[in-house]
Amino acid sequence: MIEKLKHVNFRTNKLCGEIPQGRPLNIFPSAAYAHNLCLCGKPLPPCKQG
């Protein structure tokens, strides 16, 4: 079950878009999402409006 995840690494995967804000994806540190093309949203900078 995804709700029981305690550690993930999405680094350097050419991901783009807003990080889902539900548990557990919103509890991981920004380092877990580093070096992607254009990910945004908590814990990274907010997504640009428009």
Report on the structure:
With 50 residues, this protein is an all-beta fold. It is built from no helices and two strands. The protein has one domain. The mean pLDDT is 87.
Summed up:
This protein has about 50 residues and is mainly beta.
Which structural class best describes the helix and strand composition? mainly beta
Percent helix among the residues? under 10%
Radius of gyration from the alpha-carbon trace, in angstroms: 11 Å
Mean pLDDT: 87
Q: How is the biggest beta sheet arranged?
A: 2 strands, parallel
The helix/strand series, from N terminus to C terminus, equals: EE
Count of spatially separate domains: 1
| Share of β-strand residues | 5-15%
Oligomer: single chain
Number of strands: 2
Strand order across the largest sheet: 1-2
Shape from CA axes?
globular
Uncertain residue segments: none
What are the key terms here?
50 residues, two-stranded parallel ribbon, 0% helix, globular
Write the layout of secondary structure elements.
Layout (H helix, E strand, L loop, with lengths): L15 E3 L19 E3 L10
Parallel strand pairs: 1-2
